[in-house]
Write a structure and sequence with these properties.
The chain is mainly beta. 6% of the residues lie in helices and 24% in strands. The protein starts with 14 loop residues before the first helix and ends in a 16-residue tail after the last strand. One of its GO terms (cellular component) is protein phosphatase type 2A complex. One of its GO terms (molecular function) is protein phosphatase regulator activity. Keywords: Repeat, WD repeat.
Length: 107
């Protein structure tokens, strides 16, 4: 059995802001891979989340025009919810709630 993935857990501290901006009503679609081994959904800040059911791993990736070249490997992103953040992390306070991926699809 595959446990329910925690998709937007890092946004818990931003619920008031999401509500005030009507983002609380955003609906992020979920899609399955062709082999049903993974699921994918969108998020804010042009992020999308992928969850591997077999290996029980997940990754947050960013869709950006600068890196939209074929065969470009995307680096996983991590959202920091607390005070100090590491070099490759982005603070939850810096997320752009106007940039969102509501629809995803596997190639």
């Amino acid at each position: 059995m595959f446990p329910s993935p925690q998709v937007h857990e890092y946004l818990r501290s931003k619920l008031c802001s999401l509500y005030e901006n009507d983002c609380i009503f955003d609906k992020f679609e979920v899609c399955w891979s062709g082999t049903d081994s993974a699921i994918m959904t969108g998020s804010y800040n042009n992020f999308f989340r992928m969850f591997d059911r077999i290996n029980k791993r997940d990754a947050t990736l960013e869709a950006a025009r600068e890196i939209a070249k074929p065969k470009t490997l995307l680096r996983p992103r991590k959202v920091c919810t607390g005070g100090k953040r590491k070099k490759d992390e982005i603070s939850v306070d810096c997320l752009d709630f106007n940039k969102k991926i509501l629809h995803t699809a596997w190639p």
